[in-house]
Amino acid sequence: LAAHLVPPSGADTEFTDMRAVWEALPDTRKREIEHLKVEHSYWYSRVLGGGPQPTEEERATRPPACHPIVHLHAPSNRKALYLASHAQNIVGWPENEGRALIDELIAFATQERFIYAHKWRLGDILIWDNLATMHRATPFDDRAFRRDMRRTTCREREIIDA
User: Does residue 106 have a pLDDT over 70?
Assistant: First the structure.
């Protein structure tokens, strides 16, 4: 992520190391959840953030994806939680129970002890691993100031269209 235009205050980006979060969970909680799968939906997080409900045509362009709630982060050989704002529900669970668990885990992961907050300066470039981190922007007055951040995404493996 490269900073091309930065507001005078706010608009920081907070990062959480989801490997450290996993390691800090009580062993009983780890055993309860490590076999679960989470449904992730771009549209869920977009609506949650105040965007409009997607059309059926839009939904078809980005269908939900299911991922294990915990995975082995290969580069570090450490387990990591795999959650963020796209996490909609726990597969096979009633919606209210799944949301409660996701909300609980995200609240645990966003404790100050796990967060690095980057205060952007013009020209800064940050690189992170989406398989081991969760990130979010902090609020700023977007009616008075602009924020121009440009993202480049790299993949470890070639994407082959089916």
Answer: yes
Q: Is 121 helix (H, G, I), strand (E, B) or coil?
A: coil
Q: 41 — phi, psi (to 5°)?
A: -140, 120
User: What average pLDDT does this structure show over 129-153?
Assistant: 90
Nearest to 82 by CA among 18, 126, 139, 13: 18
Q: What's at 160, amino acid-wise?
A: I
The helix (run of H) or strand (run of E) holding residue 103 is helix 95-109
Nearest one of 159, 156, 160 to 73, comparing CA atoms: 156
Residue 83, both tokens: 């959650």
Global pTM? 0.85
DSSP structure string for 15-39: EEEHHHHHHHS-HHHHHHHTT-EEE
Q: In 10 A of CB 50, how many CB atoms?
A: 6
Q: How many CA atoms lie within 13 A of 47 on its CB side?
A: 12
